[in-house]
Amino acid sequence: MRSLWFLLPIFGGATTFLVILSVATANTTLFAADYPRLLMGGATVALLLMGLIAYQLAMLYRKWRQQVFGSKLTFKLVLLLVGMAVLPGTLVYGVSVRFLSSSIESWFDVNVDKALTAGLGLGRTAFDSLLDDLVHKATTMSSVLADATALDEFSLLQQLREQFGVQEATLLSKNGTVLAFSSARNDALIPEGLTLTGNISHQIRAQRPYRMVENLPGKGVFLRVLVPVNRISFTEDFRILQLLQPVSKELASNADQVEAAWRGYQELLLARHGLKNLYRLNLSLVLLLTLLTAIVLAFVVSERFGAPLNALAASTRAVGAGDFSIMTPVSSNDELGVLTASFNTMTHQLREASMARQRYQQGLTEAKIYQENILSNLSAGVLVLDPHLHLKSANFSAQQMLGLAGLEGITLKEWGYRMPLLLPIIDFLEKSFSDSSAQGWEGDAEYDGEQGHRKLHFKGSRLPEGLGADWVLVFDDITQMVQAQRYAAWGEVARRLAHEIKNPLTPIQLAAERLEHRLQDRLSEGDAELLKRSTRTIINQVD
User: Fold this and answer.
1) Across 334-342, average pLDDT
2) CATH fold group of domain 381-477
3) Alpha carbon 517 to chain centroid distance?
4) Per-domain residue ranges for the chain?
5) Virtual CA dihedral for 460, 463, 464, 469, nearest 10 degrees?
6) DSSP summary character for residue 1
7) Which residues pair with 495 in a beta bridge?
8) 28 vs 31: CA distance, rounded Å
9) Rounded to whole angstroms, how far apart are CA atoms 14 and 52?
């Protein structure tokens, strides 16, 4: 099974490379551009496969030299199955290479090449014929427009366009400015003008027509012809007649298809040798994968035929894993049967010893569980540190209060790197351990944790040397108790302060009441009312 798991990455790499080769087969340009990389990748995969085969053979040879049970049988089966795979695989490989070469050559027919070339030439001839006809119409129209005045240009151009069946006709100045425009389409817009490139301007000035086939976006394929309207001279101005005639969609589509087919055939023709090499490389990798599969099958079949040895090996692994209940059946009286009987006797003795050890271990486990249950139910936190202050264990309350999960085996100083909030506690503990006596110490520490400001009371004591000299640290959260003490103290202070404040106000209240009683009959009605309100205010504020 380990060999099978080890083969998975190799098979994955080989499969990935075969997929890449398949993609390259469908794209001749990609294959031609990336052929060195593909060749390097194929060589790498082949070397990995050959290295794996060499490794498996070396392992088999070493087991055979070490007289490992089943090694001879495995070695014979490997040779047999590899031979069975190599001979027919090589034969199929040779026949396949020959068949692929002849098949690829049959793809390229001289008649197909001639037919595509003739079709391409026929399309060009058709376009040339249409251009010649349009040039003839433009020449005839230019001779008529040569003597036309500026007022008659538009009507004459419209008449000539309809007469010769042209879709668009435009009369331009020598600078490309539109002088007159006529179109068979009602929604046609007047063009902005024409930019006379060097080639167009040169041909027009030389009294030669300019002709071309254009693919206008959103409109289709058009024939464009430009001819001079009047003769050129050093003093006389001249004009340019431009005709646009659409090509039928069927003719344009057929021409494009013929050209695309001819171009694809030429690319395929150039990639003929590359395709042969590509298929040879694919077949070579398939042959290597077949050999590797034969080796894997050899191991699998050898395990099936070596069932007695495998059963004994399984029992050995079970004993090594601690399972002494398996007894291997003795199926023969030869050396293998004697070995199996001896192994069963040894397994029985080991089972008895293991049961005794398990009973002892169970007692220790129960005692430990009992102790852990007691510690986990304590509200106080309990920590056990070794002499070098490495955390050995912590009960549930300690983990909840300080968040010590996952810190077993970590020193106090390293706690600060993982939990910076505990730095005040860590500094306090390190100082307490360094300053404490051999018996123990006690003290309080404060820190700002995730639950706010907390105050803890610690008490540390050291175990005897016979028990490992570990430190046992017991602590409790006294934050609420301290807050309650503070609240009680502040309450007493507030009560006394209120009493001290109220003492001098009582005589003031009594004096105000007496003053009201003595003066209310002696004052006028308005002053008496004012005195009454003032006295009520003093009494209410004192109360």
Assistant:
1) 72
2) Beta-Lactamase (3.30.450)
3) 94
4) 2-107+272-305, 126-266, 325-377, 381-477, 499-542
5) -100
6) -
7) none
8) 5
9) 13
Looking at residue 505, its amino acid is L
- Which pLDDT does position 270 carry in this prediction? 56
User: Within a 10 A sphere around the Cβ of 428, how many other Cβ atoms?
Assistant: 18
Q: Write out the DSSP string of 2-71.
A: HHHHHHHHHHHHHHHHHHHHHHHHH-HHHHHHSHHHHHHHHHHHHHHHHHHHHHHHHHHHHHHHTT-TTH
Q: Between vectors from CA 452 to CA 447 and to CA 454, what angle results, nearest 5°?
A: 40
8 Å CB contact between 17 and 45: yes
Instruction: Quote the pLDDT of residue 159.
Output: 83
Q: Strand 220-228's sheet: what is its strand order?
A: 178-183, 168-173, 239-246, 220-228, 210-216
**CA–CA dist 16, 3 (Å, integer):** 20
Q: Which residue has the tokens 């230019």?
A: 142
Alpha helix stretches (DSSP H) within 217-334 = 249-270, 272-305, 307-320
Q: Which two tokens stand for residue 437?
A: 């006596």
* Local structure of 540: helix, strand or coil: helix
Greatest extent of the chain over all pairs of C-alpha atoms, in Å = 144
* Residue range 408-444, pLDDT digits in tens: 777 777 776 777 777 787 788 878 777 765 567 887 7
Return the amino acid letter for 312: L
Alpha-carbon 164 to chain mean position: 65
Integer Cα distance of 222 and 140 in angstroms: 20
The pLDDT tens digits of the residues spanning 164-194 come to 888 788 888 877 777 888 887 766 666 766 6
Render pLDDT for 246-259 as a digit per residue (tens, 0 to 9).
776 666 666 666 66
Instruction: Return d(Cα 274, Cα 267) in angstroms, integer.
Output: 11
d(CA 300, CA 375): 54
Q: Which residues contact 288 (CB under 8 A, 6 or more apart)?
A: 14, 46, 49, 50
Task: Given CATH 3.30.70.1230, say whether it is the number of domain 126-266.
Answer: no
